[in-house]
Amino acid sequence: MIIYRLTLKMLLFIGIVLASVSSQAEGKDPQAEAKITFANQPNETWQLGSTLRFDSFETFFTHNIAKTRPFFAVAYLFDTRNAHWLSYEETMAIAPKLAPVLVPNDTSHINVSSEQLAAFLNIELPSEPGLIMLYFDSPTLLDTGGQYMMAGSNFEKADSNATKIKNKRALAHQIVTEYPQISHYRIEIPAFGIKPQR
């Protein structure tokens, strides 16, 4: 009798769980709807790269350039001929239209060879040395085909953030194509290795 009651209770519990999961599956996930796929848009011609991990991206900036805070959804110029990471002022002297997608007044000096940079970002550098633009995109979720990671559960805020990210990326692409001498790369930053903030 006791086994019969336990079996009945377990079946009832399983039924409740299955009903709950089924009803959640039918509902809309506001965060999922607000995520944007990483793949190139039809009018974008980025060469794609990846840091493979978020903590690698973070370490690259914080440990290699005097504790500089890492930024994403921004662009940087790098001179592959001289293995030189350009500052904001240097970039403005060469490509002033890029101002809206740069870190304002950035004085970062990253000491990295062209080969090290290419290996870290998983990119193939142009055969002719020169300037490249690296657009570090917003972090992407794991196992989602590269959808943007949106913080918070507020749908309007997540949707607004997704639109801003997409528009900034499109703006960066539009501007850099006005400088045909600059090869342009969009760098994916997977969310793997993110350390929770306390």
Notes on the protein architecture:
With 198 residues, this protein is an alpha/beta fold. The protein starts with a helix and ends in a 10-residue tail after the last strand. Helix 6 (155-176) links the parallel strand 4 (131-136) and strand 5. The chain is built from six helices and five strands; from the N terminus they run H-H-E-H-E-E-H-H-E-H-E.
Distinctive features:
12% strand; globular; alpha/beta; five-stranded mixed β-sheet; 6 helices; 5 strands; 198 residues
Give a brief rundown of this model.
With 198 residues, the protein is α/β, with parallel strands linked by helices. The protein contains 6 helices and 5 strands. It has helices at 2-26, 30-34, 54-64, 88-94, 114-121, 155-176, and strands spanning 47-50, 74-79, 84-85, 131-136, 183-188.
Apparent shape:
globular
Helical fraction equals 25-40%
Strand line-up across the major sheet: 1-5-4-2-3
Query: Which percent band covers the strand fraction?
Result: 5-15%
Distance between the termini: 50 Å
Main sheet: strands, sense, barrel: 5 strands, mixed
**What class would the helix/strand composition place it in?**
alpha/beta
Task: Report the C-alpha radius of gyration, rounded.
Answer: 22 Å
Structure annotation, total helices: 6
Give unreliable regions as ranges.
4-39
